[in-house]
Amino acid sequence: MAGTNQRIDAGRLWNSLMSMAEIGATPKGGVRRLTLTPEDQAGRERLAGWCRDLGLTLRVDAIGNMFARREGRDPSRPPVLMGSHLDSQPSGGKFDGALGVLAGLEVMRSLNELNIATEAPIELVNWTDEEGSRFGHSLMGSGVWSGVFTPDKAYALRDVDGITVGEALDSIGFRGEHPATPFEADAYFELHIEQGPILEREARQIGVVTGAQAQVWYDAVITGQDSHAGTTPPSTRRDALLAAARVIELVDATMRKRGEDGRGTVGFLQVHPNSRNVVPGEVRFSVEFRHPTVEQVEAIAGSFPGEAGKAAAANGCQLPLTELYRIPAQPFDASCVALVRAAAARLGYASRDIISGAGHDAVYVARHVPTAMIFTPCKDGLSHNEEESILPEEAAAGCQVLFEAVLARANR
Ligand code: HGY
Ligand code: MN
Ligand code: MN
Ligand code: MN
């Protein structure tokens, strides 16, 4: 395995990853650290302790984003940022997000150990609620920071139990006093597992991420009529679940029309009243589409709502569809991408350029700060799954590239 001139401590990085994975550990080897829950709080506090041990200055902003700062020789220079997220899917993997945060921590530890003073300050970031699983808006913390969502809009988002983001932030003590607004930063680098099969299939250790694909997210509520399962004949049923099934078929057909680049998913669904002998009168569910080109996402956004409404109406139901947000395809900054590519080459890692199929905080940060991402492979390209797994040397390779890219940028 290349990367002989390692300046990071691979074993220490792996130990940090395994230590963080204990928080919210699930029986099948994954993690459940839903945003703003006690598990997320425990992960945040563990990170904060590690940062304090390094003498980093910690600050938390109004949406709970955490920034740990290492001073540079020239405090007037804007900081170089690096980081990712510690929140997870309900049955997520140990490395999604955590790798980027803990590799950043390892960069800080190594800079201290090697007594390297950088010109510019460096800040490690843990973004709040990247996953969007609990409150329905992904990239929420970086979205508020970058002005996509207002703080008040974010605070008002509710989970399935009716708890708001504001209440959850306060309950874990992470509503900080710093404004959640874009401050001047020199660059942002995010290390993340690819969450897809390409790097593993091509035996590449590093993905040089040049951008991320476009997305559109909806909330759907199908309303029919609750009625008795035993007495309601087919002719008078207004079965919201049957209508939802037709719409879900349409989501799949809309995706497949775009071939292997198409993505269409219904991941969340609630049936009301969810009783065995009641024809359901209401179904709430999520719909999201993605594609490498914004044109295709725009085309879908132009046709899907009408087609879905017709499918619901054909089953005697209404379908209020709310578009939550659209994320255009986001190219990353060429000079930062070049630093990632050069670092991988210098370290002797096999790399390739790649577009991210997943959304990342880097997508919103890139609207204000020159940004690049580094990918490492994951087994079978599996993620958002408890069996997500990577090798220690893969984590180390990504961390080493992060170290070199951040150092080069901070000293340019
Ligand atoms: O949904 C996403 O793409 C991200 O992994 N949360
Ligand atoms: Mn992630
Ligand atoms: Mn994820
Ligand atoms: Mn991400």
Automatic annotation (TrEMBL):
Organism domain of life: Bacteria
Record SUPFAM superfamilies: Bacterial exopeptidase dimerisation domain, Zn-dependent exopeptidases
Region (Disordered): 69-89
GO MF annotation list: hydrolase activity
This protein's record includes keyword Hydrolase: yes
Record keywords: Hydrolase
Stretches assigned to the Peptidase M20 dimerisation domain: 215-303
Xref: PANTHER family: ALLANTOATE AMIDOHYDROLASE, ALLANTOATE DEIMINASE-RELATED
Cited NCBIfam families: hydantase, PRK09290.1-3, PRK09290.1-5, PRK12891.1
Family label: Belongs to the peptidase M20 family.
Full protein name: Zn-dependent hydrolase
Species per Swiss-Prot/TrEMBL record: Teichococcus vastitatis
